[in-house]
Specification:
The chain is of the alpha/beta class. Helix content is about 30%, strand content about 25%.
């Protein structure tokens, strides 16, 4: 029997796509989307096919697009004319050989030579230019020019993620992030009649609501109880804080039974947080890997776990220290090429992120796979022997002390600072106990200062929070 659902009061067959939004006056059915919606529908139709292509076919298509981008960059960008002067596509076999012949582009290049990297001309059909700026969590923000074409690709990949996760657009969406003005949202939040772009460009949807990230957690919980959303979008650190609140007082998030899924962005999502969300709220978490410079890089596979690279828009490499590609299970640096930015070409751009490579996915999609996203280079601790680790302190489970939030800062090779948001001031004995616990967890006799704060720890630029930051070069 054909599966059905209710649309506009009618029982209709359930289709691969949710109901489309008609933009043509006087036409409800069949829906006729606007120009942007039609472009998105065309891209989504292609993406629905190319995701099942064999890996070799995807790589071949990437090479064709990359060749066009490189030729454009050689002609119109001073930086790339120098950098790609020796590039000879006819002298290499396969995408891996092509890429190995191109030097890696660093964040410092984008900061110091943006004017030279920018192309003097790009096809006018690519649309209006805008400036995308990273949040500069390290104090080193970068900016790139992006075109209307880049926005279109971003919207298509975002919609792909919604469709993969089979979200019900007729339900409500709550968003807690830093992009809302605090004065507009502190009391009651803001609301819209639909989910906004890109969903509203093509699909019918329910309402959405926004709240500024700096709103107090108690108020956030009250707001969520009032609107009772089906979906919540926020940062992992904010989700963790809300779960802390719910664990301490279950009534804080009582009535959230309508919640179907949490969607996280902007920070590294750890498996332990996924498990806590499932245990406390009864729902799963879907993570999105993206950057301001590039857009959507990878989205979670709904069947096989891990992250599929959006290969139709980016080439993603995970590289060892020697520059060679990582095998499945190995961890390396994430280097990306934006296949459609003809304004500020990012060709083999080192994001400063680390990830674990993966092999083919059990779901059958030919899109490349990332097993885990581990974080940024600044989130690695440098040990005196020269090795680096991803630190875990176990402070969340430290018994007997009401720790609401914690952060570790590596100030020097042998010195750490532990910052704690606590319900009360700590005693000298508690400080010593925490310092010793951190030493044992990390396996090294660090000099440790323990600082306690009665207020939440400050967020970084763009509203992001990092539990560990190294200030050691």
């Amino acid at each position: 029997m054909t599966e059905t659902h209710v649309f506009e009061g009618m029982l209709v067959p359930k289709l691969p796509w949710p109901p489309l939004q008609s933009r043509l006056p006087g036409v409800f059915w069949p829906a006729v989307p606007g120009q942007q919606g039609l472009l998105l529908a065309a891209l989504l139709t292609q993406l629905g096919q190319t995701q099942w292509w064999p890996a070799a076919a995807i790589e071949q298509a990437q090479m064709r697009q990359l060749h066009v981008l490189i030729e454009h960059a050689q002609r119109h960008s001073r930086f790339h004319a120098e950098r790609l002067a020796e590039f000879r596509p006819d002298q290499a076999q396969g995408l891996r050989e092509w890429l190995s012949a191109i030097p890696v582009m660093r964040r410092a290049d984008l900061q110091s030579r943006r004017a030279d990297i920018d192309c003097a001309w790009l096809p006018p059909e690519h649309g209006k230019l805008s400036l995308a700026q990273s949040t500069g969590s390290t104090g080193e923000p970068v900016s790139v020019r992006r075109s209307g074409l880049n926005d279109l690709i971003w919207m298509a990949m975002t919609l792909r993620e919604h469709l993969w996760q089979q979200r019900d657009f007729s339900q409500s969406l709550a968003i807690i992030r830093a992009l809302f003005a605090a004065e507009d949202t502190a009391r009651r939040g803001v609301g819209w009649k639909n989910w906004g772009p890109p969903v509203s460009e093509l699909f019918v949807s329910g309402p959405s609501y926004g709240l500024n990230l700096e709103t107090g957690l108690v108020r956030q919980a009250e707001w969520l109880r009032q609107i009772m959303p089906a979906y919540l979008l926020t940062y992992p650190s904010n989700l963790s804080a809300l779960l802390d609140l719910a664990e301490a007082d279950p009534d804080r998030l009582a009535g959230m039974g309508r919640l179907k899924q949490v969607r996280t962005i902007g920070e590294t999502l750890h498996d332990s947080l996924r498990e806590r969300c499932r245990r406390v709220l009864g729902v799963g978490v879907a993570d999105l890997y993206s950057t301001q410079e590039v857009g959507v890089i990878a989205i979670e596979c709904p069947q096989g776990g891990g992250y599929h690279v959006m290969a139709e828009g980016v080439v993603t490499e995970i590289l060892r220290d020697d520059g060679q590609p990582c095998e499945a299970g190995e961890t390396g640096r994430v280097v990306v090429t934006d296949l459609h930015n003809f304004a500020t070409p990012l060709i083999r751009y080192d994001l400063g992120d680390f990830a674990e490579a993966d092999g083919p996915c059990a779901c059958g999609r030919g899109l490349p796979k990332i097993r885990r996203i581990l974080g940024r280079e600044r989130n690695q601790m440098l040990l005196p022997d020269g090795s680096r680790i991803w630190p875990t302190s176990g402070l969340r489970k430290f018994s007997g002390i009401p720790i609401r939030q914690y952060q570790l800062i590596q100030l020097a090779l042998e010195k750490l600072e532990v910052r704690l948001h606590v319900a009360r001031s700590l005693t000298a004995d508690e400080r010593r106990a925490i310092a010793e616990h951190v030493r044992q967890s990390l396996g090294h006799p660090f000099e440790i200062d323990v600082l306690d704060f009665s207020a939440p720890l400050p967020l970084g630029p763009g509203g992001k929070f990092e539990q560990f930051v190294s200030r050691v070069a």
